[in-house]
Protein backbone atom coordinates (compact mmCIF):
# COMPACT_ATOMS: atom_id res chain seq x y z
CA UNK A 1 0.00 0.00 0.00
CA UNK A 2 2.65 2.49 1.04
CA UNK A 3 4.61 1.51 -2.02
CA UNK A 4 1.68 2.39 -4.24
CA UNK A 5 1.25 5.74 -2.54
CA UNK A 6 4.93 6.55 -2.82
CA UNK A 7 5.01 5.22 -6.34
CA UNK A 8 2.88 8.12 -7.52
CA UNK A 9 5.55 10.64 -6.46
CA UNK A 10 8.75 8.69 -6.22
CA UNK A 11 11.62 9.11 -8.61
CA UNK A 12 12.13 5.43 -9.30
CA UNK A 13 15.20 4.86 -11.38
CA UNK A 14 16.45 2.49 -14.03
CA UNK A 15 20.18 1.84 -14.30
CA UNK A 16 22.23 0.35 -17.10
CA UNK A 17 25.33 -0.75 -15.25
CA UNK A 18 27.51 -1.14 -18.32
CA UNK A 19 31.17 -2.09 -18.45
CA UNK A 20 31.93 1.09 -20.38
CA UNK A 21 29.06 3.45 -19.54
CA UNK A 22 26.51 3.81 -16.77
CA UNK A 23 23.19 5.37 -17.70
CA UNK A 24 20.44 6.33 -15.29
CA UNK A 25 16.80 6.82 -16.24
CA UNK A 26 14.42 8.63 -13.90
CA UNK A 27 10.74 7.94 -14.19
CA UNK A 28 8.88 10.77 -15.96
CA UNK A 29 12.17 12.44 -16.80
CA UNK A 30 14.16 10.17 -19.08
CA UNK A 31 17.92 9.61 -19.16
CA UNK A 32 19.52 11.98 -16.62
CA UNK A 33 22.99 10.47 -16.27
CA UNK A 34 25.23 9.05 -18.99
CA UNK A 35 28.81 8.72 -17.83
CA UNK A 36 31.71 6.32 -18.16
CA UNK A 37 31.82 3.52 -15.55
CA UNK A 38 35.13 4.71 -14.16
CA UNK A 39 36.24 5.29 -10.57
CA UNK A 40 39.51 7.00 -9.58
CA UNK A 41 41.00 5.67 -6.35
CA UNK A 42 43.95 6.68 -4.21
CA UNK A 43 45.80 3.40 -3.69
CA UNK A 44 47.47 4.49 -0.50
CA UNK A 45 44.36 5.67 1.35
CA UNK A 46 41.84 3.61 -0.70
CA UNK A 47 39.83 6.81 -0.95
CA UNK A 48 37.52 7.33 -3.96
CA UNK A 49 38.68 10.55 -5.65
CA UNK A 50 36.36 10.87 -8.61
CA UNK A 51 33.61 8.96 -10.39
CA UNK A 52 32.26 9.03 -13.93
CA UNK A 53 33.39 11.67 -16.44
CA UNK A 54 35.76 13.38 -14.02
CA UNK A 55 37.43 10.04 -13.24
CA UNK A 56 37.64 9.24 -16.95
CA UNK A 57 39.62 12.40 -17.56
CA UNK A 58 42.27 11.00 -15.20
CA UNK A 59 42.74 7.73 -17.12
CA UNK A 60 46.32 7.41 -18.28
CA UNK A 61 47.29 10.72 -16.65
CA UNK A 62 47.28 9.74 -13.01
CA UNK A 63 50.28 9.74 -10.68
CA UNK A 64 51.46 6.33 -9.53
CA UNK A 65 49.37 6.23 -6.36
CA UNK A 66 46.06 6.88 -8.18
CA UNK A 67 44.29 4.27 -10.30
CA UNK A 68 41.37 4.99 -12.53
CA UNK A 69 39.56 1.66 -12.61
CA UNK A 70 36.53 0.29 -14.34
CA UNK A 71 34.92 -1.90 -11.69
CA UNK A 72 32.78 -3.84 -14.17
CA UNK A 73 35.42 -4.39 -16.75
CA UNK A 74 34.44 -7.90 -17.69
CA UNK A 75 30.74 -7.28 -17.47
CA UNK A 76 30.69 -8.56 -13.93
CA UNK A 77 31.31 -7.02 -10.56
CA UNK A 78 35.04 -7.44 -10.36
CA UNK A 79 35.31 -4.97 -7.52
CA UNK A 80 32.37 -4.90 -5.16
CA UNK A 81 33.29 -1.89 -3.04
CA UNK A 82 34.10 0.27 -6.01
CA UNK A 83 30.88 -0.75 -7.76
CA UNK A 84 28.95 0.19 -4.65
CA UNK A 85 30.66 3.58 -4.45
CA UNK A 86 29.81 4.21 -8.08
CA UNK A 87 26.17 3.19 -7.71
CA UNK A 88 25.84 5.30 -4.57
CA UNK A 89 27.27 8.34 -6.31
CA UNK A 90 24.81 8.08 -9.19
CA UNK A 91 21.80 7.28 -7.00
CA UNK A 92 22.67 10.17 -4.66
CA UNK A 93 22.92 12.54 -7.58
CA UNK A 94 19.44 11.64 -8.75
CA UNK A 95 18.18 12.00 -5.21
CA UNK A 96 19.73 15.46 -4.84
CA UNK A 97 18.46 16.69 -8.15
CA UNK A 98 14.91 15.66 -7.32
CA UNK A 99 12.93 16.24 -4.16
CA UNK A 100 15.07 14.66 -1.51
CA UNK A 101 12.24 14.32 1.06
CA UNK A 102 10.80 11.63 -1.19
CA UNK A 103 11.27 8.01 -0.20
CA UNK A 104 14.32 6.20 -1.42
CA UNK A 105 13.91 5.07 -5.02
CA UNK A 106 13.05 1.66 -6.36
CA UNK A 107 15.73 0.55 -8.80
CA UNK A 108 15.58 -1.59 -11.90
CA UNK A 109 19.15 -2.56 -12.82
CA UNK A 110 20.33 -4.17 -16.02
CA UNK A 111 23.03 -6.79 -15.45
CA UNK A 112 24.88 -8.88 -18.03
CA UNK A 113 23.22 -12.20 -18.81
CA UNK A 114 24.98 -15.19 -17.34
CA UNK A 115 26.27 -13.51 -14.19
CA UNK A 116 26.52 -15.83 -11.22
CA UNK A 117 24.20 -15.83 -8.22
CA UNK A 118 27.01 -14.33 -6.17
CA UNK A 119 27.41 -11.49 -8.63
CA UNK A 120 23.66 -10.84 -8.69
CA UNK A 121 23.65 -10.66 -4.93
CA UNK A 122 26.61 -8.28 -5.07
CA UNK A 123 24.81 -5.86 -7.39
CA UNK A 124 21.64 -6.07 -5.34
CA UNK A 125 23.47 -5.43 -2.07
CA UNK A 126 25.49 -2.63 -3.62
CA UNK A 127 22.31 -0.88 -4.79
CA UNK A 128 20.64 -1.33 -1.42
CA UNK A 129 23.67 -0.03 0.45
CA UNK A 130 23.73 2.81 -2.05
CA UNK A 131 20.22 3.84 -1.03
CA UNK A 132 17.75 1.89 -3.16
CA UNK A 133 14.51 0.82 -1.45
CA UNK A 134 13.79 -2.20 -3.66
CA UNK A 135 16.05 -3.63 -6.31
CA UNK A 136 14.90 -5.48 -9.40
CA UNK A 137 17.52 -7.11 -11.59
CA UNK A 138 16.98 -7.71 -15.27
CA UNK A 139 19.29 -9.25 -17.82
CA UNK A 140 20.60 -6.61 -20.17
CA UNK A 141 19.54 -8.26 -23.43
CA UNK A 142 16.00 -8.47 -22.05
CA UNK A 143 16.10 -4.80 -21.06
CA UNK A 144 17.47 -3.89 -24.49
CA UNK A 145 14.69 -5.88 -26.18
CA UNK A 146 12.08 -4.04 -24.10
CA UNK A 147 13.88 -0.74 -24.80
CA UNK A 148 13.57 -1.21 -28.54
CA UNK A 149 9.95 -2.34 -28.16
CA UNK A 150 10.33 -5.90 -29.39
CA UNK A 151 7.15 -7.91 -28.73
CA UNK A 152 8.92 -10.05 -26.13
CA UNK A 153 5.73 -11.31 -24.48
CA UNK A 154 4.49 -12.97 -27.68
CA UNK A 155 5.09 -16.60 -28.57
CA UNK A 156 7.57 -15.67 -31.27
CA UNK A 157 11.34 -15.56 -31.56
CA UNK A 158 13.20 -12.26 -31.14
CA UNK A 159 16.96 -12.02 -31.54
CA UNK A 160 18.97 -9.24 -29.91
CA UNK A 161 22.72 -8.73 -29.97
CA UNK A 162 24.27 -6.17 -27.58
CA UNK A 163 27.92 -5.32 -28.20
CA UNK A 164 29.24 -3.28 -25.26
CA UNK A 165 32.69 -2.48 -23.91
CA UNK A 166 33.56 -5.74 -22.12
CA UNK A 167 31.07 -8.26 -23.44
CA UNK A 168 28.93 -9.06 -26.45
CA UNK A 169 25.65 -10.64 -25.51
CA UNK A 170 23.35 -12.55 -27.78
CA UNK A 171 19.85 -13.51 -26.66
CA UNK A 172 16.85 -15.18 -28.22
CA UNK A 173 13.69 -14.11 -26.44
CA UNK A 174 10.19 -15.54 -26.57
CA UNK A 175 7.19 -15.45 -24.21
CA UNK A 176 8.94 -12.97 -21.90
CA UNK A 177 11.92 -15.23 -21.30
CA UNK A 178 15.42 -15.78 -22.63
CA UNK A 179 15.29 -19.05 -24.58
CA UNK A 180 18.91 -19.11 -25.67
CA UNK A 181 21.81 -16.84 -24.85
CA UNK A 182 25.52 -16.43 -25.17
CA UNK A 183 27.96 -13.94 -23.74
CA UNK A 184 31.49 -13.54 -25.08
CA UNK A 185 34.21 -11.35 -23.62
CA UNK A 186 35.04 -9.83 -26.96
CA UNK A 187 33.65 -6.33 -27.54
CA UNK A 188 34.70 -2.67 -27.72
CA UNK A 189 37.67 -2.94 -25.32
CA UNK A 190 39.11 -5.89 -27.23
CA UNK A 191 38.68 -3.98 -30.49
CA UNK A 192 40.76 -1.14 -29.01
CA UNK A 193 43.46 -3.62 -27.90
CA UNK A 194 43.51 -5.10 -31.39
CA UNK A 195 44.05 -1.64 -32.88
CA UNK A 196 46.90 -0.92 -30.42
CA UNK A 197 48.57 -4.23 -31.36
CA UNK A 198 48.12 -3.74 -35.10
CA UNK A 199 49.49 -0.20 -35.07
CA UNK A 200 52.49 -1.38 -33.06
CA UNK A 201 53.26 -4.49 -35.08
CA UNK A 202 52.35 -3.37 -38.59
CA UNK A 203 53.15 0.34 -38.42
CA UNK A 204 55.79 0.45 -35.70
CA UNK A 205 53.93 3.10 -33.71
CA UNK A 206 53.02 2.92 -30.06
CA UNK A 207 49.64 4.38 -29.18
CA UNK A 208 47.45 4.36 -26.08
CA UNK A 209 43.87 3.43 -25.35
CA UNK A 210 42.42 6.86 -26.14
CA UNK A 211 44.05 7.04 -29.55
CA UNK A 212 42.82 3.54 -30.35
CA UNK A 213 39.29 4.54 -29.35
CA UNK A 214 39.46 7.62 -31.59
CA UNK A 215 40.70 5.56 -34.54
CA UNK A 216 37.88 3.07 -33.98
CA UNK A 217 35.24 5.79 -33.99
CA UNK A 218 36.72 7.67 -36.95
CA UNK A 219 37.64 4.87 -39.35
CA UNK A 220 36.72 1.62 -37.57
CA UNK A 221 35.13 -1.00 -39.79
CA UNK A 222 34.66 -4.77 -39.77
CA UNK A 223 33.33 -5.22 -43.30
CA UNK A 224 34.35 -3.60 -46.62
CA UNK A 225 32.99 -0.07 -47.11
CA UNK A 226 31.95 1.51 -50.39
CA UNK A 227 34.59 4.21 -50.06
CA UNK A 228 37.90 4.18 -48.25
CA UNK A 229 38.20 6.51 -45.25
CA UNK A 230 41.34 7.44 -43.34
CA UNK A 231 42.64 9.34 -40.34
CA UNK A 232 46.01 10.18 -38.80
CA UNK A 233 47.70 8.05 -36.15
CA UNK A 234 50.05 9.93 -33.88
CA UNK A 235 52.26 8.02 -31.51
CA UNK A 236 55.81 7.08 -30.62
CA UNK A 237 58.06 5.24 -33.03
CA UNK A 238 58.81 1.73 -31.71
CA UNK A 239 62.49 2.02 -32.58
CA UNK A 240 63.46 5.68 -32.13
CA UNK A 241 60.96 6.53 -29.41
CA UNK A 242 60.29 9.81 -31.23
CA UNK A 243 56.84 11.10 -32.24
CA UNK A 244 55.62 9.82 -35.61
CA UNK A 245 52.47 10.22 -37.74
CA UNK A 246 50.95 7.92 -40.36
CA UNK A 247 47.66 7.45 -42.11
CA UNK A 248 45.40 4.59 -41.11
CA UNK A 249 42.43 3.45 -43.19
CA UNK A 250 39.24 1.50 -42.59
CA UNK A 251 40.81 -1.41 -44.50
CA UNK A 252 43.72 -1.53 -42.05
CA UNK A 253 41.37 -1.42 -39.07
CA UNK A 254 39.28 -4.16 -40.67
CA UNK A 255 42.42 -6.31 -40.75
CA UNK A 256 43.19 -5.42 -37.13
CA UNK A 257 39.69 -6.39 -36.02
CA UNK A 258 39.31 -9.41 -38.28
CA UNK A 259 39.72 -12.10 -35.64
CA UNK A 260 37.70 -10.44 -32.87
CA UNK A 261 34.84 -9.29 -35.07
CA UNK A 262 34.53 -12.82 -36.44
CA UNK A 263 34.35 -14.24 -32.92
CA UNK A 264 31.34 -11.99 -32.28
CA UNK A 265 29.65 -12.86 -35.60
CA UNK A 266 30.32 -16.59 -35.14
CA UNK A 267 28.81 -16.44 -31.67
CA UNK A 268 25.64 -14.98 -33.13
CA UNK A 269 25.66 -17.69 -35.78
CA UNK A 270 26.09 -20.52 -33.28
CA UNK A 271 23.38 -19.11 -31.01
CA UNK A 272 20.94 -19.03 -33.95
CA UNK A 273 21.98 -22.57 -34.87
CA UNK A 274 21.07 -23.87 -31.43
CA UNK A 275 17.71 -22.07 -31.39
CA UNK A 276 14.54 -24.12 -31.97
CA UNK A 277 13.60 -23.98 -35.69
CA UNK A 278 10.15 -22.48 -35.06
CA UNK A 279 11.74 -19.44 -33.42
CA UNK A 280 14.38 -19.16 -36.14
CA UNK A 281 11.59 -18.79 -38.71
CA UNK A 282 10.33 -15.73 -36.81
CA UNK A 283 13.84 -14.32 -36.56
CA UNK A 284 14.44 -14.74 -40.28
CA UNK A 285 11.26 -12.77 -40.89
CA UNK A 286 11.99 -9.94 -38.45
CA UNK A 287 15.77 -9.84 -38.58
CA UNK A 288 18.34 -9.61 -35.78
CA UNK A 289 18.41 -6.42 -33.69
CA UNK A 290 21.82 -4.95 -32.95
CA UNK A 291 22.32 -2.71 -29.86
CA UNK A 292 25.16 -1.38 -27.66
CA UNK A 293 28.00 0.93 -28.69
CA UNK A 294 29.52 -1.81 -30.87
CA UNK A 295 26.44 -1.67 -33.10
CA UNK A 296 27.86 1.63 -34.39
CA UNK A 297 31.05 0.04 -35.66
CA UNK A 298 30.87 0.30 -39.45
CA UNK A 299 29.84 -2.95 -41.11
CA UNK A 300 29.04 -4.86 -37.92
CA UNK A 301 25.49 -5.37 -39.21
CA UNK A 302 26.79 -6.58 -42.59
CA UNK A 303 29.29 -8.96 -40.99
CA UNK A 304 26.68 -10.61 -38.75
CA UNK A 305 24.29 -10.76 -41.68
CA UNK A 306 27.02 -12.41 -43.77
CA UNK A 307 27.55 -15.10 -41.11
CA UNK A 308 23.90 -15.78 -40.33
CA UNK A 309 22.27 -15.08 -43.69
CA UNK A 310 19.67 -13.11 -41.74
CA UNK A 311 18.99 -9.37 -42.00
CA UNK A 312 20.48 -7.29 -39.18
CA UNK A 313 19.01 -3.97 -38.03
CA UNK A 314 20.92 -1.47 -35.90
CA UNK A 315 18.38 -0.19 -33.34
CA UNK A 316 17.75 3.53 -32.81
CA UNK A 317 20.23 5.05 -30.35
CA UNK A 318 21.89 1.69 -29.61
CA UNK A 319 23.87 3.05 -26.60
CA UNK A 320 20.71 3.80 -24.61
CA UNK A 321 18.57 0.76 -25.51
CA UNK A 322 19.17 -1.00 -22.17
CA UNK A 323 18.46 2.03 -19.98
CA UNK A 324 15.35 2.92 -22.00
CA UNK A 325 14.21 -0.64 -21.35
CA UNK A 326 14.69 -0.25 -17.60
CA UNK A 327 12.70 3.00 -17.88
CA UNK A 328 9.77 1.23 -19.56
CA UNK A 329 9.89 -1.46 -16.87
CA UNK A 330 9.64 1.18 -14.12
CA UNK A 331 6.19 2.09 -15.39
CA UNK A 332 5.13 -1.51 -15.22
CA UNK A 333 7.09 -3.25 -12.47
CA UNK A 334 4.14 -5.40 -11.42
CA UNK A 335 3.01 -6.68 -14.80
CA UNK A 336 6.56 -7.33 -16.00
CA UNK A 337 7.66 -9.15 -12.86
CA UNK A 338 8.40 -12.35 -14.78
CA UNK A 339 11.37 -10.75 -16.45
CA UNK A 340 13.30 -10.10 -13.23
CA UNK A 341 16.14 -12.41 -12.29
CA UNK A 342 16.79 -11.57 -8.63
CA UNK A 343 18.39 -14.22 -6.48
CA UNK A 344 15.31 -14.94 -4.42
CA UNK A 345 12.03 -15.37 -6.20
CA UNK A 346 10.65 -11.95 -6.92
CA UNK A 347 7.72 -10.87 -4.80
CA UNK A 348 5.54 -7.84 -5.30
CA UNK A 349 6.19 -5.65 -2.25
CA UNK A 350 3.14 -4.88 -0.05
P1 LIG B 1 28.60 -1.16 -21.99
O1 LIG B 1 27.15 -1.55 -22.04
O2 LIG B 1 29.52 -2.33 -21.80
O3 LIG B 1 28.85 -0.05 -21.02
P2 LIG B 1 28.17 0.42 -24.36
O4 LIG B 1 26.97 -0.18 -24.98
O5 LIG B 1 28.00 1.71 -23.63
O6 LIG B 1 28.95 -0.62 -23.44
O7 LIG B 1 29.24 0.59 -25.52
C1 LIG B 1 30.51 1.06 -25.26
C2 LIG B 1 31.45 0.56 -26.34
O8 LIG B 1 30.96 0.96 -27.62
C3 LIG B 1 32.85 1.14 -26.18
O9 LIG B 1 33.80 0.10 -26.38
C4 LIG B 1 32.93 2.15 -27.31
O10 LIG B 1 34.24 2.26 -27.82
C5 LIG B 1 32.02 1.54 -28.36
N1 LIG B 1 31.48 2.54 -29.29
C6 LIG B 1 30.74 3.62 -28.99
N2 LIG B 1 30.46 4.33 -30.10
C7 LIG B 1 31.05 3.67 -31.13
C8 LIG B 1 31.16 3.88 -32.55
N3 LIG B 1 30.61 4.95 -33.13
N4 LIG B 1 31.85 2.98 -33.28
C9 LIG B 1 32.43 1.92 -32.69
N5 LIG B 1 32.38 1.65 -31.39
C10 LIG B 1 31.70 2.52 -30.61
MG1 LIG C 1 25.54 -2.51 -22.16
Approximate shape:
flat
Structural category: alpha/beta
Are any ligands bound, and if so which? adenosine-5'-diphosphate, magnesium ion
Query: Regions with pLDDT < 50 over 5+ consecutive residues?
Result: none
Strand order of the largest sheet: 3-2-1-7-8
Compute the number of strand runs: 16
Mean pLDDT: 89
Task: Work out the radius of gyration.
Answer: 21 Å
The secondary-structure element order is HEEEEEHEHEHEHEEEHEHEEHHEHEH
Number of helical segments with 4 or more residues: 11
The proportion of residues forming helix, as a percent range, comes to: 25-40%
Reported for the largest beta sheet, the result is:
5 strands, mixed
Measured between the Cα atoms of the first and last residue, the distance is 6 Å
Determine the strand fraction and express it as a percent band: 15-25%
Write the layout of secondary structure elements.
Layout: H1 2-7, E1 13-17, E2 21-26, E3 30-36, E4 39-42, E5 48-51, H2 53-56, E6 66-69, H3 80-97, E7 107-111, H4 117-129, E8 135-139, H5 140-147, E9 158-163, E10 168-174, E11 177-184, H6 188-203, E12 205-206, H7 209-219, E13 230-237, E14 243-249, H8 250-273, H9 277-286, E15 288-291, H10 300-308, E16 312-314, H11 321-330
Parallel strand pairs: 1-7, 7-8, 9-15, 15-16
Antiparallel strand pairs: 1-2, 2-3, 4-5, 4-6, 9-10, 10-11, 12-13, 13-14
Bound molecules: adenosine-5'-diphosphate and magnesium ion.
Magnesium ion binds at residues 16, 18, 140, 162, 164, 292, 322.
Question: What would you say this structure looks like, in words?
Answer:
The protein has helices at residues 2-7, 53-56, 80-97, 117-129, 140-147, 188-203, 209-219, 250-273, 277-286, 300-308, 321-330; strands at residues 13-17, 21-26, 30-36, 39-42, 48-51, 66-69, 107-111, 135-139, 158-163, 168-174, 177-184, 205-206, 230-237, 243-249, 288-291, 312-314. It is an alpha/beta fold. The strands form four sheets. The protein has a five-stranded mixed beta sheet, sandwiched between helices. A five-stranded mixed beta sheet has the order 11-10-9-15-16, sandwiched between helices. A hairpin with a 2-residue loop joins strand 10 and strand 11. Helix 3 crosses helix 4 (117-129) and helix 6 runs antiparallel to helix 8 (250-273). The structure holds adenosine-5'-diphosphate and magnesium ion. Adenosine-5'-diphosphate binds next to helix 6 and helix 7.
